[in-house]
């Protein structure tokens, strides 16, 4: 579940860090409530009574960075391995280039016209965050174009459902999306 409508629009000069942090906390509370109560929650039924919410890094606007978009006019089909089961095909539709302790890149994928999907690993993976990596999803208000500036908010990074239940098969971040830097933002390891 990723509710980013109010957080992933272009920030620019009107970015209000206090309003952003309040909205992020509101969305985190809503997600915790969903995981605790929804019949299709990945939290096993037996564990829901003791579930008191996910563990998050504190909101940090330093990890809400402006990325430069490069759109791939002829998207390549790539197969991503999953935690269990067959590989799944995605289209590599764009690349985000951004600065976090130096210039970095992340491939951006799409699957069956779904949201933009950015699976990644970083130096917190397997220590402070889930051992298989984390995800970000974005549903931009318009089609992206090469050269666009896009707010890439790592505070929205979330743990895939397979971390909570073996009934889920989750795509693994490909090596091209392994960042050689720690990103202490978003969800921590469950």
From TrEMBL:
Cited Pfam families: DUF1684 (PF07920)
Region of interest (Disordered), residue spans: 1-62
Compositional bias ranges of the Acidic residues kind: 1-22
Top-level taxon of origin: Archaea
InterPro entries, per database record: DUF1684
Bias type Basic and acidic residues, positions: 23-37
Record protein name field: DUF1684 domain-containing protein
Species annotation: Salinirubrum litoreum
């Amino acid at each position: 579940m990723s509710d980013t409508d109010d957080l992933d629009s272009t920030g620019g000069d009107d970015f209000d860090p206090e309003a952003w942090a309040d909205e992020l906390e509101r969305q985190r509370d809503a997600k915790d409530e969903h995981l605790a109560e929804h019949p299709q929650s990945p939290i096993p039924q037996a564990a829901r009574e003791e579930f008191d919410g996910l563990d998050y890094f504190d909101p940090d606007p330093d990890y809400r960075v402006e990325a430069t978009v490069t759109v791939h006019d002829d998207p390549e089909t790539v197969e991503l391995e999953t935690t269990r089961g067959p590989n799944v095909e995605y289209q590599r539709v764009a690349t985000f280039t951004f600065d976090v302790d130096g210039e970095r890149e992340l491939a951006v994928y799409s699957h069956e016209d779904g949201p933009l999907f950015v699976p990644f690993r970083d130096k917190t993976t397997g220590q402070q965050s889930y051992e298989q990596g984390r995800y970000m999803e974005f549903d931009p208000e318009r089609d992206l174009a090469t050269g666009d500036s896009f707010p890439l908010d790592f505070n929205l990074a979330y743990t895939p459902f397979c971390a909570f239940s073996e009934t889920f098969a989750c795509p693994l971040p490909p090596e091209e999306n392994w960042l050689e830097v720690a990103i202490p933002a978003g969800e921590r390891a469950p």
